[in-house]
Design a protein that fits this description.
heterodimer; A: mainly alpha; two-stranded antiparallel sheet; 22 helices; 73% helix; B: 91 residues; mainly alpha; elongated
Chain lengths: 521, 91
């Protein structure tokens, strides 16, 4: 494939704009960036609109834009689970996350592990929550790089050895520099550019596909014909996808959707995005408004079928959307669309590295390396940690096959879900004993990892219960195990009078200020 | 507070606001409990999507979209509307 100079020029132009925005962002609602609250949470000052762009830009990553249509392209209906996933995630966010915001504001928590520490009084449990977050975040950052890699490759930019990775290294060096100087304000401002571009590209692609085929009916028909032919060609047709979900996929579909939804707001980058808003009220309003992105995601997912209908063939399913864009649009718009996807990687990558920096600083450095660190020392540590994390992701993606990053990201979701008992139940009541939570977490982490490996790192595992086999999402299966172990041990430990530590939070900390003052209607 | 106490008090009693073990503030708690009932509506989107057996079908198609797809797009709107209703009723 040759390099298209027009596409490349447009791509570089938009990348340059975003770079300027990223450095300028330090002055946006300026604060003292030597304080961790300011660098890592932008001073908790974002209103509904800024939060909508930031959280939307943070949750719908470049990898989503590449991987969801790739899954639909490869497996059909099952890949569409991302849509019910993001539908049910928001009612969950509405019910749970304002409580985390309230208690975090009250006690100056920066990370979910800060909350766990104060709630259960146990630094070991808090460290485990922080480590789970770090483990799940690093491959996620690496996958943002995969998103950039795919579009750079699709433009025909290639080279051998170091030269081939140079554009990627350059893009990440720029990202690292403005994240370091501007903190969370950089992705917040870039999110405006990113989201506008992604909306334009998606709407243009949907209109172009509908225009080319005269509606979406022929697109579904072509995909159906494709899967039927593929199923007829092999002896085990169940392994082939379909346009309408088959009975064998029912459990997998629903559990992947719900499990992913419960895991989403446990991720450090999602919590960083939420805590940067100025009130729990802002989070509630965004639970109503963020589904607009899910509509976008649903349409992007269907582009996987459009790629089949257009006969797009690439060396991996990940090429589905880039291939579709090249087939449908003139070079200048290809450059614009690819820039949208690449910039789409920068927002979440920045927030993820900031979240990782916050976790390292607050829950490892401040606890084990330098207790009593000043806010300025914390901020400095977090900045350095965000650099190290990004460098690690870059090295990983250059030297390790991409498949490992994808596998690790999948495991990351399973792992992340195992912090649900400590964080989510903890936001309502301190039901569980902290030692029970530690054992439950450990059992579920080991079981989930082994189950995933036994399936060749797949997200689902067939469980046989009384003659019925349920092929469901491992994350949710081991979460049930986790909760059962934690509940039984809690009863046992309380009977044994194994001491619980003091709770540094009070019930009113979880309510908003106007809920706290009686008499306010 | 033991696990047994919480279990017997019922998770739904004052959900999402804790009532067990809270210092007595009867009027406030009562008001919160009434309003907190609206939160149960947030379960609706989960019920609508929990059983693919009910919606994994091609017909009736709308504008060429098989039932499976447009059904889920409709739930996107329902979910957002239900959340908005709960927001307005508990504000």
């Amino acid at each position: 494939m040759r390099i298209d100079s027009v596409a490349l020029a447009v791509f570089v132009f938009f990348f340059a704009i975003v770079t300027v925005v990223g450095f300028y962002a330090a002055r946006f609602r300026a604060g003292d960036l030597t304080q961790l609250q300011e660098w890592g949470l932008a001073g908790r000052r974002f209103g509904t609109v800024v939060s909508w762009f930031l959280i939307g830009g943070d949750l719908y990553t470049a990898y989503t834009l590449i991987a969801v249509p790739a899954a639909v392209y490869g497996t059909g209906a099952l890949g569409f689970f991302a849509v019910p996933y993001t539908i049910v995630a928001y009612p969950f966010m509405f019910a749970v996350m304002p409580r985390l915001w309230n208690v975090s504001k009250r006690h100056n928590f920066v990370t979910p592990a800060d909350f766990v520490h104060a709630r259960y009084g146990c630094s070991v449990l808090a460290t485990l929550v922080a480590i789970t977050g770090l483990l799940a975040t690093m491959p996620y950052i690496a996958l943002q790089l995969v998103g950039i890699q795919v579009v750079i490759g699709a433009m025909g930019v290639s080279g051998s050895g170091w030269a081939g990775d140079l554009p990627l290294i350059l893009a990440f060096a720029i990202l690292a520099a403005y994240t370091y100087t501007s903190g969370l304000r950089a992705p917040a401002m870039i999110a405006f550019v990113k989201d506008a571009m992604i909306y334009i590209v998606t709407i243009a692609a949907v209109i172009a596909v509908a225009g080319k085929f005269g509606g979406f009916g022929p697109v579904f028909a072509a995909a159906h014909a494709h899967f039927t032919a593929a199923a007829a060609a092999i002896p085990k047709p169940a392994a082939v996808g379909s346009v309408v979900l088959g009975p064998k996929g029912y459990w997998a579909y629903a559990t992947l959707a719900f499990g992913s939804a419960f895991a989403l707001f446990l991720y450090p980058h999602a919590i960083t995005g939420l805590l940067s808003s100025k009130s729990g009220e802002v989070i509630k309003r965004n639970a109503i408004l963020l589904p607009a992105y899910s509509l976008l995601l649903g349409l992007v997912a269907l582009l996987g079928f459009a790629a089949i209908a257009l006969g797009v063939v690439g060396k991996s399913p990940q090429f589905a959307v880039p291939g579709l864009i090249i087939a449908l649009f003139p070079p200048w718009f290809v450059g614009f669309a690819f820039a949208a996807i690449a910039i789409g990687a920068l927002v979440p990558a920045a927030v993820m590295s900031i979240a990782a920096g916050n976790l390292w600083t607050r829950n490892i450095y401040r606890v084990y390396v330098r207790p009593g660190a000043t806010p300025a020392q914390e901020s400095r540590q977090a900045k350095l940690a965000s650099l190290v994390v990004k460098l690690g992701a870059l090295v990983f993606i250059i030297f390790v096959p991409t498949q490992y990053a994808i596998d690790l990201q999948l495991l990351g979701g399973i792992w992340m879900l195992q912090t649900f008992p400590a964080i989510v139940t903890g936001l309502f009541r301190r039901i569980f004993h902290h030692v029970a939570l530690i054992v439950g977490w450990f059992v579920a982490m080991v079981a989930g990892t082994l189950m995933s490996f036994s399936q060749g790192v797949k997200p689902t595992f067939p469980l046989s219960l009384g003659g019925v086999t349920i092929n469901a999402y491992i994350g949710l299966e081991v979460l049930v195990l986790n909760l059962v172990v934690t509940a039984i041990l809690t009863v046992a430990f309380d009977r044994m009078k194994l001491a619980r530590y003091a709770d540094r939070t009070t019930p009113s900390d979880y309510r908003s200020s106007h809920e706290r003052s009686p008499g306010v209607a | 507070m033991s696990f047994a106490d919480v279990a017997s008090s019922g998770f739904g009693a004052g959900w999402p606001l804790p009532t067990a073990g809270v210092a007595p503030l009867p009027r406030v708690v009562l008001r919160m409990t009434g309003r907190a009932r609206w939160y149960w509506l947030l379960v609706i989107p989960f019920l609508g999507l929990a059983f693919p057996a009910l919606y994994a079908r091609a017909e009736p198609a709308v504008f060429g979209f098989p039932f499976f797809y447009w059904y889920q797009f409709v739930w996107l709107l329902v979910s957002s509307t239900v959340t908005a209703l709960v927001y307005l009723r508990t504000r």
